[in-house]
C-alpha cells in the first residue's frame, strides 16, 4: 500500500484521503495520484503486505507538488471539420491505439524472450496524461514503461488544446515506439527461427 499524508495536516483530521493498494508485478512499480493539491507538501509511506497483513513500513523523502498555474483552456473554433477530427481521433485511440498496447504486450511477453529481446526501459516514451472521460488506467509494458491508457473516451464536443496535445503524444508513441518495437520483434524472431533451422 502507498499512502500520501499532508505534512501539515491536523492530527485530528483522521486517516489519509490519498492511499492506493498497489499490486507489484515487476521490479518497477508505478502509481499515479490524481487529486493532490497544488503547492502542498506530502509525506509518502510504503507499507508492504504479505497475505493481506502489513509486514513493515518505509518512508521516503517528503515532496511538494508544483503550483498549477491558472490557465484558461484553449478551445478551438467549433466547425464540422474540428468535430469530425475529434470523433475520428477518439475512434482511432479506442480501436487502434489501445488495441496495439494490449496485443503488442502479449506478443512481447511470449516472443521477445525467444527472440533474445530483453526489457529495455531506456526506450520509454515520456509519460503523459491523456484527455479521458474517466480516470486513465495505468499500463506497464514489456519494457517496464509506464503509460496512462484512456479506456472510456470523452464525449465529442469542444476541441481543446489538451486534445491536440494528447493526439500528438499518442501519434509519437504509435509511430516512434510501438511500430518500431513491432518490427524489431518479428525481425528478431524470424532471424532466431532461421538460425534454428526453421524455414
Quaternary status of these chains?
single chain
Care to count the β-strands? 9
Helix content: 25-40%
Number of helices: 2
Overall 3D shape: flat
Average pLDDT level? 77
How much of the sequence is in beta strands?
Answer: 15-25%
SSE topology string? EEEEEEEHEEH
Q: How does this model look, in words?
A:
With 199 residues, the protein is an alpha+beta fold. Helix content is 34%, strand content 15%. It contains two helices and nine strands, in the order βββββββαββα. The strands form three sheets. Strands 1, 2, 3, 6 and 7 form a five-stranded antiparallel β-sheet that branches. A hairpin with a 5-residue loop joins β8 and β9. α1 (80-111) runs parallel beside α2 (161-195). The longest helix is centred in the C-terminal third of the chain and has 35 residues, at 161-195.
Amino acid at each position: 500500500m502507498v499512502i500520501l499524508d499532508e505534512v501539515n495536516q491536523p492530527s485530528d483530521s483522521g486517516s489519509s484521503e490519498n492511499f492506493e493498494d498497489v499490486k507489484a508485478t515487476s521490479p518497477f512499480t508505478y502509481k499515479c495520484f490524481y487529486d493532490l493539491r497544488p503547492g502542498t507538501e506530502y509525506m509518502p509511506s510504503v507499507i508492504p503486505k504479505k497475505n493481506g497483513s502489513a509486514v513493515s513500513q518505509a518512508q521516503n523523502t517528503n515532496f511538494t507538488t508544483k503550483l498549477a498555474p491558472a490557465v484558461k483552456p484553449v478551445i478551438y473554433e467549433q466547425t464540422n471539420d474540428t468535430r469530425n477530427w475529434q470523433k475520428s481521433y477518439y475512434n482511432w485511440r479506442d480501436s487502434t491505439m489501445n488495441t496495439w498496447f494490449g496485443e503488442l504486450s502479449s506478443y512481447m511477453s511470449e516472443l521477445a524472450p525467444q527472440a533474445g529481446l530483453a526489457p529495455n526501459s531506456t526506450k520509454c516514451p515520456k509519460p503523459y496524461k491523456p484527455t479521458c472521460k474517466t480516470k486513465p488506467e495505468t499500463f506497464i509494458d514489456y519494457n517496464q514503461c509506464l503509460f496512462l491508457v484512456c479506456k472510456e473516451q470523452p464525449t465529442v464536443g469542444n476541441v481543446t488544446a489538451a486534445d491536440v496535445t494528447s493526439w500528438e503524444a499518442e501519434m509519437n508513441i504509435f509511430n516512434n515506439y510501438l511500430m518500431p518495437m513491432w518490427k524489431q520483434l518479428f525481425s528478431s524472431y524470424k532471424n532466431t527461427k532461421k538460425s534454428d533451422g526453421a524455414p
